[in-house]
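I have a small job for you when you get a moment. Would you make up a two-line entry for one protein for me to read? No commentary is needed, just the two lines. Write everything out right here, beneath this request.
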Amino acid sequence: MKKKSPSCNFCGASIEEVERLLTGPDSVAICNKCIQACHKLISSGKSEKQATDSLQPTQNEQAEVYLPSPSELKKHLDKFVIGQDNAKIALCVAVYNHYKRLYSGNSKKFSNEVEIDKSNVLFVGPTGSGKTLLAQTLARFLQVPFAITDATVLTEAGYVGEDVDSILVRLFQAAEYNVQATEKGIIFIDELDKIARKSANPSITRDVSGEGVQQGLLKILEGTIAAIQPKGGRKHPEQPLVHINTRNILFICGGAFETLDKVISRRVNSYGGMGFGAEVLSKNEIKIGEILSKCEPEDLISYGLLPELVGRLPVIVSLNELDEAALLSILTEPQNSLVKQYTKLFAMDGIELSFTEDALNAIVKKTIEQKTGARGLRTVIEKILMPYMFEVSKYREQAVLKIDSNIVEAAIAKNKR
């Protein structure tokens, strides 16, 4: 995200667009135009509602916002994320509709018509399949505040751990303490499957890190005005609070949902079954991504998510498990591929790094064995290159470093000992 210049918290005007911008505690700012408007409103004796309406920027005052189309968003994602075309299309359409709804709400042409609810997104897919990267890349492209949180560290309010409101604190901090920017941001909640109930039946005992967190997420996912502490931590009566409206914040949740494929399979009878007409597939023929693509809300409820929470995540996007071809492409093709990153890293020391095709294939095979997805590629490469990075001065004299399959196999064998 590009660093934004200070702006007025009332009208949104940047420091370059106004004559004066006064900054108060917690980086709250107000411009000279809003100060003059406030003075006129106080002098005129208007009601609180009239005063609030008068401070809203008019349609002509609002900066024109360019929103890329879903196809343009996908084209950008293709530069950084390999494969997952169905997931990209679903995500791009959801994000486009969300911000189209947000920006058109400022237009008089649409403001008095049907009110459109937001559609939060749920990613379902194996670990390392690109869930976080997809959300992060889109947020960076749209230049909106973005925050990632792990659902496993959250607890119900009043217990040891982080409250659900801490999610909003992270986004507020990512938005450089700008309320208006925060309310247009994106929050990615990872490991949502880890807070699922053990069964679809309500819990008798207090489940503060599971069902309790799900209950806490309901309001902020749907849209509420939450009072947060700008610096985080537990709420204290004497500390000032900032109020954030979550109605226009897009929430993208993700999780591996490891046994969800079995829940879906039981429902649709994807493999195995009874009767002469039943289709029987071996486990090697089953692709988890294909099963997850058939996921319905009832499957998520059976897995352990609250029906109310599932209802607030209407867009369910499934991701495929990455095969050898996809992992090989991830190594070399994206704009920020690992091979390009490490090549640049060694080039800073005057060393020309290269990988043979056999070496790349060996790295991919090792990653598949570890079942860690695309994240595992970096782990394997780090182990291979660690000795060379440690003795970088030695290889600086040679100026060329070529990694072949023998080097890869030797590094893998050494780490097995």
Summary: The chain has 19 helices and eleven strands. The chain has a mean pLDDT of 81. The first strand starts at residue 21 and ends at 23. The two ends are 43 Å apart (CA to CA).
